[in-house]
Structures are given as C-alpha cells and as structure tokens.
Amino acid sequence: MMTRDMFALGLLFGLGSCVMGYRGEETFAETHDAGPMRSLLLDLPATDVNLDGVAGATSLGWEGSWFSTGGTQKIATQNAQRPDFFYSRLDGVAELRAFVPLDVENLVDLELRRILVPADVDIELTGVHPKVDITGVDGHLFVDLQRGDVTINGSETGNYVRTGLGSITVTSSAAIDAATRWGDIVLDQTVSGGDVIATAGNGSIEVLFADVSNVSFQIDTGGRVDIRTADLVQVSSGQLVRELGDGTVRVILEASGDVIVRDQAWTDAGD
After folding, report:
1. Rounded CA gap, 194 and 67, in Å?
2. CA dist list (Å): 224 to 50, 84, 156, 189, 237
C-alpha cells in the first residue's frame, strides 16, 4: 500500500524528471578563408574562450559543441541543431557571431573548445565568459567582460583588458591597460618601453618589468607597496610617486590590496 509520503516522494522525482528532460549535443568544426583580415570581432554567448594565434595562417577555424535540453530526445537533438555561426568580412574587418533562435535561447549552451586565427590580427571580445585564454596573437587585444578570468600571452601591439569580476594575467611586450572591479592582476611586460596602467578595485597587483630605468611610478594602494628592482628598492604603504631616468614610461597602479613590483634583473639575482 502506498503511503502519503511515498506518493509525495514519487511525485517529486517525477516532476524532477520532467524538468531535467533529455540532453542533446551538436558538435561543430568550421574553417573559413581569413582573406585580408586586420581585425576580428567575436560576438558569442557565455562560454570559455580559448583563442590561439597561428603565425602565417591564411584561414581561421573554431570547434566545439552546442548542448541542449528538451522534453524528448528528438526535441533535445533538434534544439542543439538550431544555433549557428555567421562569419563575415568587409574591408579587412571580420566578425564571428553566434546566432541562437529566441525560442531555444534558454535551452542551449555553447562549449567553444578553441578558435584559431592568424597571429597578426587585432581581436575584440566582449560579453560574459567564465575563462578567456588568448595565446600567440601579436595584434592589439581588446577584451571587455562583464565577468570572467582573463589570461593573455603574446601581444606585441597593445592590451586593453576589463572585467567586472575576475582575475587578469597578461604577459606581453607591449603596453598594458588592465582593470578589474573584483580580482587580482598579474602582469609581465617582457620588453621595456610601453606604459602599464592597472586598477584592481578589490584585489592586489603584481608587475614584473624587463627594466624600470625610465619609469615614472604613480602608485595608490590600500595595502603595501613593495618595489624591488635594480633601480629602486622601496617598501612602504599608501601612495608613491617616483620618477626614474627620463620618466618616459608611465606606470600607474591602483589597488585596494598590495602592489608588488619587480624587474628582471632583481628576479634573476634571486628575490
């Protein structure tokens, strides 16, 4: 005999099954001729972005899967097949855009495993992406996220990085402008000469410079200032303004936490 509790439990599991439904998956792998491309705009729904620049490449490609839910396996499979990508190019400006029909917008998720692009293009990426990893792109990088962690390795032209919630890690020979409202920032400027501007609203900043002999420091922190370089060693707190050499390289660092600065000579000698 079924008790009231047994009936309630069975009803709960039955409703849970209806909510979960069935899962569908549609994998994709696309390649397109890059042509005379100078820049690439990425307009994508929430997904991790792993983007690699390939020297000498004349095409770009992307691969991953669309995942979906549905009341039956057939509907779930059909839902996963509904989204699509659109690639366009005009006068050297290219755009890769994902299109998701409104009636399945809340039923599908994108898992973008990787994007391959020519190394010399500029990249613009906006939106919500839990994790962004860009490697080997020599062009200018513009990343502006509502939230998500950002890791960049390789730009030779310039880096502009913003995230509302997440950490930022950049290794580059070019100028760096990075800001997060909540998270830490770690920068490695491998060639001296480019300005470095960083703001961590709720976090710390660490910067490794190739050389600081011509740097103009402007630091404002709610924590500790720890500078150990061949040209300047100073441990203090609060604000610091100091010009080294001709001061042609601007370094502006603002953080609620500690600000730590090193140069390659100090690191090589052993911190």
Report:
1. 43
2. 34, 49, 31, 21, 4
Give the integer Cα–Cα distance in Å for 271 and 263.
10
Instruction: Tell if the pTM clears 0.85, that is, is over it.
Output: yes
Q: Which two tokens stand for residue 27?
A: 């994998």
Helix, strand, or coil here: 269?
helix
Name the nearest CA neighbour of 139 among 127, 161, 154, 151: 154
How distant is the alpha carbon of residue 117 from its chain centre?
16
Cβ–Cβ under 8 Å, residues 65 and 109: no
Phi, psi of 57 (to 5 degrees): -70, 145
Number of other residues whose CB lies within 10 A of the CB of residue 65? 17
Distance (Å, whole) CA 39 – CA 138:
11
Query: For the chain, what's the residue count?
Result: 271
Q: What is the pLDDT along the chain (271 residues), one digit of tens a residue?
A: 445 444 343 433 343 444 458 999 999 999 999 989 999 999 999 999 999 999 999 999 999 999 999 999 999 999 999 999 999 999 999 999 999 999 999 999 999 999 999 999 999 999 999 999 999 999 999 999 999 999 999 889 999 999 999 999 999 999 999 999 999 999 999 999 999 999 999 999 999 999 999 999 999 999 999 999 999 999 999 999 999 999 999 999 999 999 999 999 999 987 5
d(CA 163, CA 160): 10
